Amino acid sequence: MSQNDSTGAGLLEPPKLTRQDFVSDQTVRWCPGCGDYSILAQVQKVMPDLGIPKEKIVFVSGIGCSSRFPYYMNTYGFHSIHGRAATLATGLKTARPDLSVWVVTGDGDGLSIGGNHLIHCLRRNLDIKIMLFNNRIYGLTKGQYSPTSEFGKKTKSSPFGTAEQPINPICVAIASEATFVARSLDVDPAHLSKSVEKAAKHKGTAFLEIYQNCNIFNDAAFEDFTSREVRSDRMLYLEHGHPMIFGKNHDKGIRLNGLEPEVVTLGENGVSEKDLLVHDESAAEPTLAYLLSRMTYPEFPVPVGVFYRAQRPCFEEILEKQGKDIAAKVGPGNLEKLIRGGETWTVT
Amino acid sequence: MSTQTRVKETPHEVQELETVVIRFVGDSGDGMQLTGTQFADTTAIVGNDLATLPDFPAEIRAPAGTLPGVSGYQISFSSQDIRTPGDAPGVLVCMNPAALKTNLADLEDGGILILDTDAFTQGNLNKAGYKTNPLKDGSLAGYRTFEIPLTTLTLRAIGETTLGSRQATRCKNFFALGLVFWLYERPVDYTETWIKDKFKGNQEVARANLAALQAGYNFAETTEIFTTHYRVTKARLAPGTYRKITGNEATAIGCVAAAMQAGRPLFYGSYPITPASDILHELSRFKNFPVKTFQAEDEISAIGAAIGASYGGSLGLTGTSGPGVALKSEAIGLAVMTELPLVIIDVQRGGPSTGLPTKTEQADLLQAVYGRNSECPAAVVAPATPAECFTFAVEAFRIAIKYMTPVFYLSDGYLANGAEPWKIPEIKDLPRIDVHFAMDKATFQPYKRDPKTLARPWAIPGTPGLEHRIGGLEKEDVTGNVSYDPLNHHKMVRLRAEKIAGIANDIPELEVFGGDSGKVLVLGWGSTYGSITTAVERMRARKASVSSAHLRYLNPFPRNLGEVLRRFEKVLIPELNLGQLQWMVRARYLVDAVGLNKVQGKPFMVSEIIHKIEELL
Fold it and tell me: For an engineered disulfide with A96, which of B96, B289, B312, B563 has Cβ 3.0 to 4.6 Å away?
């Protein structure tokens, strides 16, 4: 069987797709001011540049505000059930390695009810892209705390404050053997579109956490460090091969003190650029990535960008190869032989 | 393979028998399942009809010699057409006191009892709770008891060996098998070949097992303890080529056959669970076929992945047992709402909850038909015999694809592990499964239905121009867009129900075994087929006005079911549950059906059904 189009040499290039080609005929029904609009816009902007025919693209989602995403993309889409998007994507990609499969999920969907699937999807390393919109709240069920809500947060279901430690999506992804781990934010469209593009181009499961503002139930959740005025002082834009410098005046950096990171000011106490940590997103071990993932505001600037990237064979490729290798060894499956297998006897 | 028999002419008396029921029982570590399977394989090859009933504990190795650790394998074989592994064994091969204690009551009066006297130590007697030694207290007087020091004889037969004494002792099951092979005129060749192949990496183990097998056979032949051996002539089965098959094997092969007939790949998502795991084991070997298996992290992932694969154009399959179905329920609803083809295998076991993992039950019928939120119709089929599992796996996919619907396939522990001869079908006789993917973007609408089947089109990603979105939210008729319109929802609920009900026009009418009308109709479904049919056959031989009918389609029912029911004065429904089909039949047809219900983790005995029929007549 083949669902692949034959795009042999000599054929005319298909017309270049535009952002508009990825806009579906459905009315977008997120609340006005929702961060999801920005994410949708960036994804629609990046899609034409990926060079993938749009019929080959599938968005799979679970339940929650974020999970309405597929309806607004003029591609194939599957809005599934709570927490299970990764499972559908796994079956789809395994059965159809030719497709570009995207999972859209939220902090509740992906880390609470679907936490188990997320972990296993990441360790299997299918060539799928997971965008986790993290707004630290349950939006669609109207304002209960989520697994990423900060400790002690007061919500409808925690009127006296939560008694639970939040989970850190980047830490979870690293611990799950993810081969691509990145973070971006809805209010920085340039960074977001670059991050989506990097995720799309990674071969393997790409995990992209996107800080996303829910202006109805958890407004300004990230504003302390994401607002335009303070961003440069309170966020660390990770760049591969570059020293970790931040601050309006490019004068602050991250240095390693023993096994702990610390914030230092360049020029003070003899600190120079060569004392700083240099980001290595493709380090052999995700140790540095994990260390970065533990940096939170206000003690540290919040890192965004690619934390970690590795090359590892994909689940669906290994499976395809096993099938081919075995077929090469014993011949392709023969139904006649299969049903007549084992010991037989004939009655006349 | 042609099999040469090596039955020597002996001076022993030979007695012809029609049907024999043997049960091998021992400790979980004694290899009783292996012994039984080898006996069944050889019996199949020599041409008897047969049925088997493996019965083993859920614990992998309960403490040796204890009552919960007893594992058994019963086989019935015959020169006649048989349908059950038999009510009571005529031969009991017992490897220790615990096995004797738990099984003796089932042995026929005057039956043959073969015991390993070496195992009747004071320690083992204590573990089994015997106050006195049954070998000495006269409690075995009603049986033809053969006390044989199986362990000692096995060790002697193996002779000098580099194997430790524990490993050498483990060969005693082959000694016992050799002995029983002689007793029933079975050749040892097949098992010899099997041992050589199985232990080709360990010559010493192979040699020891071969020596034990041969010694058991020779022991029976040369000692005078058995005065008679028994002959069960070949069964007069319909002409054709046969193989012995278990329900789980037949299910796996049937699913592959469905994929080949449909020309689409098979995707099996599953999470290990007794007694369904063997389907995963089987299918995961078929990698040179267009078959992919996925051992998921849980039951929900297993079905989610299967739905994803179906959406992509594969034959999505998920298999589990009752507790797994419970976890999959929400996803089944999603498949119903998105109207994708999907087959859900439920190999039923004792419940509720973890229940009796290794024991059979048929109590998931209502779960399959109704066990989801809202109005959520799915088709349900159930094979009646191990061999029929093949046919119904193909049939489940035929329905799933033609009607774009999830289809439940209800097997059970007894069908799954039980074996019988299977007349291998001709590929050309298998039903064709036509797959039509939507291709035409000018006319495509995600929920525009085929007027005959009410199926929506199967439009798979990768098809240019057909980009669309589906999901669990209610669909607008025809367009498939999300809709909260009250009247649309009402209409869609009805359409989904009508689609499933319409399958009745595409399945065979219910056939009646025996007279078309009469006093009692015994109606069954699933694995009770053998016991019910045998019981009715015996009653009819006694001129009783009894017929039977067996449902392979549980949702929808065959279109003539109501009419069949009304032709009989009384309807009896034997089920391994508290009356689930009975409840459905009474509700649907207002027929005062009577139940015969057994929930003991065991199949019906023929005598139990006969007794109930007699009560009704």
Answer: B312
d(CA A248, CA B486): 56
Contact call for residues A301 and A225 (beta carbons, < 8 A) = yes
Cα separations in angstroms, B613 against B20, B328, B536, B598, B606: 25, 38, 9, 15, 11
Contacts of B301 in chain A (CB under 8 A): 84, 86-87, 90, 116-117, 120
| Those residues with Cβ within 8 angstroms of residue B164's Cβ, 6 or more apart along the chain or in another chain | none
- What is the number of other CB atoms lying within 10 angstroms of the CB of residue A45? 17
Question: Do the beta carbons of residue A44 and residue A19 sit within 8 Å?
Answer: yes
Residue of A nearest to B283 (CA): A338
Q: Which chain A residues are within 8 Å of B393, Cβ to Cβ? A: none
What is the ipTM metric for this complex?
0.95
> A126-177 pLDDT, tens per residue?
999 999 999 999 999 999 999 999 999 999 999 999 999 999 999 999 999 9
- Judging contacts by C-beta atoms under 8 Å, the chain B residues touching residue A20 are none
How far apart are alpha carbons B233 and B210 in whole angstroms?
Answer: 26
- Joined tokens for residue B2: 């042609």
Q: At which residue do the structure tokens 């979980």 appear?
A: B28
Contact assessment for residue B416 and residue B243, using Cβ atoms and an 8 Å cutoff: no
Q: What are the DSSP E strand ranges found in A19-161?
A: 57-61, 76-79, 100-106, 128-134
Between strands B70-78 and B91-94, the pairing is unpaired
Nearest CA in chain A to B459: A76
pTM: 0.94
Label the pairing between strands B70-78 and B49-55: antiparallel
B418 close to B51: Cβ distance less than 8 angstroms: yes
